[in-house]
Amino acid sequence: MGKQVQFDDAARAALRAGVEKLAGAVRVTLGPRGRNVVIEHAGHSPTITNEGLTIAQEVELADRFENLGARLVREAAARTGGQAGDGTTTATVLAHALVVRGLRAVAAGHNPVALRRGLERAVREAVAHVAEHARAVGGREDLARIATVSAGGDAALGALVAEAMDRVGRAGVVTVEEGRSLETSLEVVEGVRFEGGYLSPYFVTDPDGMEAALDRPLVLVADLKFTQARDMLPALEIAARHRRPLLVAAEDVEGEALATMVVNRLRGTVQSVAVRVPGLGERRRAMLEDLALLCGANLVAADLGREPEGVTEEDFGRARRVRVDHDSTTVIEGGGRPAAVRLRLQALERELAGASSEADAERLRERRARLAGGVAVIRAGGATETAMKERRARIEDALAATRAAVEEGVVVGGGLALLRARAALDRLGLTGDEAVGARIVAEALEEPAAQIASNAGMEGAVAVARARELPFATGLNALTLQFEDLREAGILDPAKVVRCALENAASVAQLVLTTDAVVVESDEEDAGPGAP
């Protein structure tokens, strides 16, 4: 297949067009009065959502050059979501503002490299300003406020997320599922989460969330490497006989053993997932022992005289549900005996009291928290599957935002933290094209606040001009359409979300500004010499 190439202004114009089309679909969702977007799925029900990343991931443009521009912004949004759990729409709005203004400056004859230097300096200064004005998260009320903002202004969902985090601790495990009723509910159950996700994407059962979910699985826990097909056959045969899903948590599963599990999964013989338990030596062994205890499994290990081909039905543990994503595994309501767990906790307390080093004490505290902690399960309700999916997405956004807030604190919301950061750029003292780059950032910092106002039915530029004249924390409350102290109104954003959105948007803008050529695949295959 041949390639197509565009250069200079034509290349940058195509990238800009792609950025504008994607941003146009995403930015209408920003803020509590953001609009919805309907997404078609061939052969399935349409999705109605106001979740920025979901929309961005669905945008594929027919023009390959334009599509590259859209993909760059989509990656910035995805990176923001991955780092901070929220802020994907803000990242898109900022990237669009920076790219459009930056390309306008390049077309006017300003040096792209100097513009980039000014842009980098300005972004660093703005990020420092945001961090300087962040404050630590207070109690449950603060968590509820943050969650409410991220859930699109839904105070009930915000309160539920705050309650979940309060009940299991801020470092605790909270999962979100689609419910079976109209109401959204919260339940705290026994469970554990550990790092280490699925070893093959073929195990995924939920392509939208890239997650594997197993209901009432058998659980095999082994301090062994499974490499040969014969290592895995006894476990698969037992699971198939009982018609149960299978979770294999081990030192590793690779080669023929992994391929055997994947083939059985794809054929529908056994729904299974293999995960690699993290850590080395004693740390990994402790994790495996704790997992076996929680699930009621017998640990299979060579030093205990056990090999994979000798696995029996008595070795398997149980769980009500297991959820595995790319990075972690959550086991909910394992089948272990509560009395055995209590005895293990008492033993850990005795070991902790006699720990000889801080490293040993930290390891024991980690095990204690793992065994004693629970899992909060939020079940998203709704009248239809579409409504449930939309509510689940909002809860997941709210949960991610509260976690980000715990990490780096909170700042005033409503786009105001970025708008106020503009003042910090005045002290940079840049000249020439670098000053132009800084001015591009200064103008872009006002765009989220302007877009929130526009989505609420106000003129964005007018709302921003009014906010500039008001005290630091006073801005537009898009729900009430009043200018008020947003901190007192509970409108807060996680500082981490604001930081990541700006940094990732700037990264995309810098790439576009300094691009002089774009190469894409040709739409038509080269038929070659002699073709008719």
TrEMBL record:
Amino acids binding ATP: T29, L30, G31, P32, D86, G87, T88, T89, T90, G414, N477, A478, L479, D493
The keyword Chaperone appears for this protein: yes
Superkingdom as given in the UniProt entry: Bacteria
InterPro entries the record matches: Chaperonin_Cpn60_CS, Cpn60/GroEL, Cpn60/GroEL/TCP-1, GroEL-like_apical_dom_sf, GROEL-like_equatorial_sf, TCP-1-like_intermed_sf
Pfam hit, one: Cpn60_TCP1
E.C. code: 5.6.1.7
GO terms under cellular component: cytoplasm
Location(s) in or outside the cell: Cytoplasm
A biological process from GO: protein refolding
Keywords: ATP-binding, Chaperone, Cytoplasm, Isomerase, Nucleotide-binding
PROSITE patterns reported in the protein's UniProt record: CHAPERONINS_CPN60
GO MF annotation terms: ATP binding; ATP-dependent protein folding chaperone; isomerase activity; unfolded protein binding
First-level EC class: isomerase
Assembly and interaction partners: Forms a cylinder of 14 subunits composed of two heptameric rings stacked back-to-back. Interacts with the co-chaperonin GroES.
Record's function text: Together with its co-chaperonin GroES, plays an essential role in assisting protein folding. The GroEL-GroES system forms a nano-cage that allows encapsulation of the non-native substrate proteins and provides a physical environment optimized to promote and accelerate protein folding.
Family according to the record: Belongs to the chaperonin (HSP60) family.
Name this protein carries in UniProt: Chaperonin GroEL
Source taxonomy: Bacteria, Candidatus Eiseniibacteriota
Protein's gene: groL
